[in-house]
Specification:
By secondary structure, the chain is of the alpha+beta class. A hairpin with a 5-residue loop joins strand 8 and strand 9. The radius of gyration is 19 Å and the shape is elongated.
């Protein structure tokens, strides 16, 4: 696809996305990571129950999502001295030094949301009242599945942006670094995710259904050679995630197991 230099993908229109759960990678090792596994010997019966939870999630849940591209406006500092980023033609104002560094030089921003829907919540409640262990295993399988769905939609948006000579850095969610959770509300509004995906917010700004993810990443012009190769990942330090600045890095259960929440 030939694209003019400096072209921008269509802005401001959320586009629906749906994945067949069976087509997403959902591996036992990833579910074990959410269970806090650190190399212990597993009994055959437990392995079978983990695999059954994975199969149940894969068979019965169909992750859905929506994503859109927006222009970026760098604003001055708020009353506390924190720099702000506004997404054009929305009410989204992202406050904090971490998200400002992440987006300030971007040509545009991609925003998306994914969810497993209320079916995952209903089945988890049933299991919790009848089989607590199976509920724990199913919860971990759902966490792994929604994370993989987020990765799949992230890849799709980056692939779409690559046609315009743009590459994305890593996805940044509310609660990372110093980006407050209360930004969640305006991100959902910008995507019309309450209507299209049924995602609502608790008073704590946590999403319902709980197996839901919102994220934003920046889009940056790439050298023509990489554009022609169809690359959609930013070849720079900011393309790599880090625990730097994470508010829960101290005492993080993933870090204590020498891993991270994203890998």
């Amino acid at each position: 696809m030939a694209v003019k230099e400096g072209a921008t993908p269509p802005l401001g229109t959320p586009r629906p996305w749906r994945a067949d759960a069976g087509s997403l990678r959902l591996e036992r090792a990833e579910v074990l990571r959410y269970l806090g596994y650190s190399g212990q010997e597993l009994e055959a019966e437990l392995v079978e129950r983990i695999d059954a939870a994975i199969e149940e999630a894969r068979r019965n849940l169909a992750p859905r999502g929506t994503g859109a591209f927006f222009g970026i406006e760098a604003l001055g500092a708020d009353d506390d001295g924190n720099p702000c980023i506004r997404l054009a033609d929305t009410t989204v104002v992202l406050t904090g030094r971490d998200i400002y560094r992440h987006l300030k030089d971007a040509h545009a921003a991609a925003v998306f949301a994914v969810t497993l829907g209320m079916e995952s919540e209903r089945h988890l409640r049933v299991l919790s009242s009848q089989q607590p262990l199976d509920a724990t295993l199913y919860d971990a399988a759902c966490s792994a599945l929604v994370e993989e769905a987020a990765e799949a939609l992230d890849r799709k948006l980056k692939h779409d942006a690559a046609a315009y000579g743009l590459a994305g850095n890593w996805r940044f969610s509310c609660g990372y670094g110093d980006l407050p959770l209360d930004a969640q509300r305006s991100l959902l509004d910008a995507l019309d995710a309450r209507r299209s995906l049924g995602i609502t917010l608790a008073p704590s700004n946590l999403m319902i259904p709980s197996k839901s993810i919102t994220a934003v990443f920046g889009l940056f012009p790439t050298p023509s050679g990489e554009r022609e190769a169809g690359m959609g990942i930013l070849p720079a330090a900011d393309a790599v995630r880090s625990c730097r600045g994470c508010r829960v890095a101290v005492g993080c259960s993933f870090r204590s197991r020498r891993t991270t929440c994203w890998n």
